[in-house]
């Protein structure tokens, strides 16, 4: 049975693989203590018992002594305060578990500031930097880096996968986030991606179809693109992407392609390109062999995997984003140059193309 605290954590935040939330320190109130936490509310049938009994019998993945130790260490909060083990619970009370920190993988934290025009920021995210806390990543995320830099309660307007580089738009106020969200829903925020794909891509191509769960995949979160006029799968979502080939390295066997998504679906560009027969260079999940993703997850990629992938990450870059400023309404456009890893692969191939 899944641990109840993990279930509550998943309800608290809708991140992909591991769920986290932020709790503010009670003393002093103006200091944000960013911690992994889980929180539950006491129901009437759980009331009138002490907190140690509640923890022991409801959450059996720790022993009674372990829960007592967590209380003494200040990792259990009752209505925001550190309780005694015999503290009696009442209906509606809040019980929080501040989880201990875990070792996190190192990341590329060298993001760049592309635009600062309150209440919005545009950042250039490097590859290998998660945007949100998820899985093993909490402090080593763009969210945490910005919070630690004093930006406060930020809100991301668009999201990029950990391996994807490029422009990330950030709102610094609720009203700014709300206005940008309206533009996103109305498709007034335009995004341009640059992507290296396997094969020689056509000059231009519009892919219109459906994204639906890939029931044949060993990876639950994977989706697949189905080019058709409709889909009978209830979970399917319409997806439209416009592609244009920028250049190609014939001998190396790949192309640099511009992608303009008309819709904004989960893994839309990567899944669509795989469905078209042009997987993204370096893509372990939507590449030539998805078992590479399983080996990568276990930390055991082979040399053959690395050679086949060509690049250590998926070669997808959010190159440009345009939107209306949420306050004065001026149309703004932000550009993030092609990152060195993609540029080096492309320059090497194009340079050697002249000798082939």
Under the CATH scheme, which class of the largest domain?
Alpha Beta
* β-sheet strand percentage: 25-35%
Please tell me the total number of domains: 2
Share of helix among residues? 10-25%
**CATH fold descriptor of the largest domain:** Pseudouridine synthase
Question: Treating each run of at least 4 consecutive H or I residues as one helix, how many helices?
Answer: 9
Distance between the termini: 60 Å
Task: Give a brief rundown of this model.
Helices cover 23% and strands 26% of the residues. It is of the alpha+beta class. Helix 2 packs across helix 3.
Describe the structure using short key phrases.
356 residues; alpha+beta; Structural Genomics Hypothetical 15.5 Kd Protein In mrcA-pckA Intergenic Region, Chain A; Pseudouridine synthase; 2 domains; 11-stranded mixed beta sheet; 3-stranded antiparallel beta sheet; 9 helices; globular; disordered N terminus; disordered C terminus
Give a written overview of the molecule.
It is a single chain. The chain is α+β, with helices and mostly antiparallel strands. It folds into two domains: 4-98, RNA-binding S4 domain (Structural Genomics Hypothetical 15.5 Kd Protein In mrcA-pckA Intergenic Region, Chain A, Roll), CATH 3.10.290; 112-353, 2-Layer Sandwich (Pseudouridine synthase), CATH 3.30.2350.10. It contains nine helices and 14 strands. It has helices at residues 4-12, 51-58, 64-72, 142-148, 174-185, 268-276, 291-297, 303-309, 340-353; strands spanning 37-41, 76-78, 94-98, 112-117, 120-125, 155-156, 165-171, 190-198, 204-213, 223-226, 237-249, 254-261, 316-324, 331-335. The strands form two sheets. Strands 4, 5, 6, 7, 8, 9, 10, 11, 12, 13 and 14 form an eleven-stranded mixed β-sheet that branches. A three-stranded antiparallel β-sheet has the order 1-3-2. Residues 1-32 and 351-356 have low confidence and may be disordered.
